[in-house]
């Protein structure tokens, strides 16, 4: 039997083949092991419990939205957050916005007894009045259960107290910012449809050159085979983590903002806290380019993130890409005269941020933390898009 384990990962895959018998753990929870051959269950539980802790790794990729109640409430991931005096589990969620004042969310934790606590509901800032929106549910951890393995989510409705949905259990990912592995990581929100492989490779190679050491891609139905091959290549080099991103089937296109982009942004923010010191959130048609004496992020941007400055809101200047070529970043030399202070991109210390928006930092973790906009002579976002000059 072979156990493939990440740091602090309970069991992501357990796959063995002996003769014609195959055994596979399909659930990351020790308490809910599903095994093709039930005769191995006791032995597998003993092995797992003695070999690996119960928490998931931040690099675990196989997540999906779990339905608490259809057309009302869905949950995605749960993060153990010890950054404040009170420890919380932060749950990335989708909620029917019309019910936001009517719903009470609860978290249950397993200790000597089952302990149920009320969640604090926080609506993400850029839901754009869509039918469904992104939420962070924050559940305080009971003092006698300092490091829970999982959390079970349930709810009640004030106007329909007898209504009950599914009790959904999520395995927990701890936030361990003191153990980050790289200095700069880039998060790419959900990619979908036709993705130009040349643009994807150009983005990867230029951004690596500028200073990125790790990339986290959220993908939903990429159609271009060359782009899929490129992502697989970078994944094999351990440069890219690809997270399949699929919204619940009952949420129609247009009922949530831009394929759930905001929820992916914040899931990436929390996921990255254990992986990286600094996080950039951008699209593959954008480059964050220093314009001072160096083009490298660690030399140009790192000094800006000192003291209480925990993030940068970087302004954009659009470049004319009507000229065709395989490498647009080099061939595009004409840009707009004015800069966009609306279409900014953020670069942050993720461990100091509670929530990010699409073009700004919505909420630092502490009030004294600052987000600044560097002068355009220092750094610019370069969107490689065909726009008027």
UniProtKB/TrEMBL annotation:
Membrane topology annotation: Single-pass membrane protein
Enzyme class: transferase
Native species: Mytilus edulis
Pfam families, alphabetized: Glyco_transf_92 (PF01697)
Subcellular location: Membrane
Upper taxonomic lineage: Eukaryota, Metazoa, Spiralia, Lophotrochozoa, Mollusca
Keywords, comma-separated and alphabetical: Glycosyltransferase, Membrane, Transferase, Transmembrane, Transmembrane helix
UniProt family annotation: Belongs to the glycosyltransferase 92 family.
Keyword Ribonucleoprotein set for record: no
Key word Transmembrane helix present: yes
GO molecular function, one term: glycosyltransferase activity
Protein's recorded name: Glycosyltransferase family 92 protein
InterPro entries per the UniProt record, alphabetical: Glyco_transf_92 (IPR008166)
EC numbers: 2.4.1.-
GO cellular component: cytoplasm; membrane
């Amino acid at each position: 039997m072979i156990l493939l384990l990440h740091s602090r990962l309970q069991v992501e895959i357990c796959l063995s083949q002996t003769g014609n018998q195959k055994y596979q753990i399909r659930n990351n929870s020790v308490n809910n092991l599903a095994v093709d051959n039930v005769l191995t269950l006791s032995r597998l539980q003993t092995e797992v419990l003695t070999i690996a802790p119960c928490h998931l790794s931040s690099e675990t990729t196989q997540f999906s939205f779990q339905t608490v109640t259809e057309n009302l409430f869905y949950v995605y991931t749960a993060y153990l957050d010890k950054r404040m005096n009170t420890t919380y589990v932060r749950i990335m969620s989708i909620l029917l916005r019309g019910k936001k004042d009517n719903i009470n969310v609860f978290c249950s934790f397993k200790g000597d007894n089952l302990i149920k606590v009320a969640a604090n509901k926080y609506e993400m800032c850029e839901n754009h009045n869509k039918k469904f929106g992104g939420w962070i549910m924050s559940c305080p951890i009971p003092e006698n259960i300092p490091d829970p393995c999982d959390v079970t989510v349930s709810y009640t409705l004030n106007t329909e107290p007898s209504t009950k949905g599914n009790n959904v259990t999520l395995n927990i990912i701890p936030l361990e910012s003191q153990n980050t592995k790289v200095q700069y990581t880039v998060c790419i929100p959900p990619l979908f449809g036709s993705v130009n492989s040349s643009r994807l490779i150009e983005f990867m190679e230029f951004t690596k050159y500028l200073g990125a050491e790790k990339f986290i891609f959220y993908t939903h139905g990429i159609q271009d085979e060359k782009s899929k091959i490129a992502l697989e290549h970078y994944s094999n080099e351990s440069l890219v983590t690809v997270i399949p991103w699929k919204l619940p089937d009952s949420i129609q296109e247009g009922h949530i903002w831009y394929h759930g982009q905001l929820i992916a942004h914040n899931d990436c923010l929390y996921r990255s806290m254990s992986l990286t010191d600094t996080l950039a959130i951008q699209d593959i048609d954008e480059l964050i380019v220093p314009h001072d004496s160096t083009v490298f992020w660690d030399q140009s941007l790192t000094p800006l993130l000192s003291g209480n400055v925990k993030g940068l809101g970087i302004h954009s200047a659009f470049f004319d890409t009507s000229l065709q070529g395989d490498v647009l970043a080099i061939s595009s030399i004409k840009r707009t005269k004015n800069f966009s202070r609306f279409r900014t991109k953020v670069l942050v210390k993720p461990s100091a941020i509670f929530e990010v928006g699409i073009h700004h930092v919505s909420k630092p973790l502490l009030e004294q933390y600052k987000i600044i906009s560097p002068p355009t002579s220092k750094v610019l976002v370069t969107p490689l898009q065909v726009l008027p000059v």
